[in-house]
Amino acid sequence: MNDVKGKKNEPRGIQSIEVGGQLLLALAHHGRPMALKDLARGAGMTPAKAHPYLVSFIKLGLVEQDGGSGRAGFYGLGPLALQLGLISLQQYDPVRLATPVIEELALQIGHTVAIAVWGTRGPTVVRVAEGPTPVHISMRHGTVMSVAGTASGRLFATWRADDAIALGEPLPDAAAIAAVREAGLATSRDGVVLGVSAAAAPVFDAAGRLVLALTAIGSSASFDTSPTGALTTALRDAATRLSHQLGH
């Protein structure tokens, strides 16, 4: 009976699976093979309790024991864990994942938020979540943004320079690129349209490639472009979470 766990009005689960799963979480968090005692400690259990779980996980292919030189007794994620991870990544479409995120962000920061991807003509808006205050600037699906003159454009010019160069448009200067890398996002105040500001944060895939930008836009009077402000921090944090979901 102890194997079945669940609170009132919650689905009932198998306690032993949840306990053993802490070992898998510890391995995933650590990122490399671990000694039994360290792995058990990371999962909040004794080595004697951890060992039977590891034996079962090894049989399933979720864990493997590292028998390399000087590494005997170390445990790492096995081939099935790798296969499951790859399948999970294949199921993740970046734009689909980001769509509900921009809806939440627009409510959180009080400004319009869009998803921009690299298209044949440059940074292109593919999704828009309107903020509570309308922005009097074109921010519709299919809008193509300047590489050098917008926050989204500078973001792509920083992390997809080859694509930006091939486009043949003017590029941001070296100082602007360095500023984007240092801040981890790009901002624009009164750039394309006077009185309108923007910020764009990068979302990367498992290969470290910039796949989309989360771009917020709003009235300069109420839009904080400070790299450490609440708005840019929320934008950057959301982009980081999406990057982690995509395996970055």
How would you portray this structure in words?
It is built from nine helices and ten strands. It is of the alpha+beta class and 248 residues long. A five-stranded antiparallel β-sheet has the order 7-6-10-9-8, with helices on both faces. Strands 3-5-4 form a three-stranded antiparallel β-sheet. A two-stranded antiparallel ribbon has the order 1-2. A hairpin with a 5-residue loop joins strand 9 (196-204) and strand 10 (210-219). Helix 5 packs antiparallel against helix 9 (230-245) and helix 6 (151-159) packs across helix 7 (161-167). The chain is elongated. It starts with a strand and ends with a helix. The mean pLDDT is 85.
Structure characteristics:
single chain, 248 residues, alpha+beta, five-stranded antiparallel β-sheet, three-stranded antiparallel β-sheet, 9 helices, elongated
Strand adjacency order, main sheet: 7-6-10-9-8
**Main sheet properties:** 5 strands, antiparallel
What is the CA-based Rg, rounded? 23 Å
Helix content: 40-55%
Computed structural class? alpha+beta
Q: Which ranges are low-confidence, i.e. pLDDT below 50, for 5 or more consecutive residues?
A: none
Overall outline: elongated
Mean pLDDT: 85
How many helical stretches? Answer: 9
Total strands: 10
Q: Estimate the strand proportion.
A: 15-25%
User: What is the distance, rounded to the nearest whole angstrom, between the alpha carbons of the first and last residues?
Assistant: 40 Å
Write the H/E string, N to C: EEHEHHEEHHEEHHHEEEH
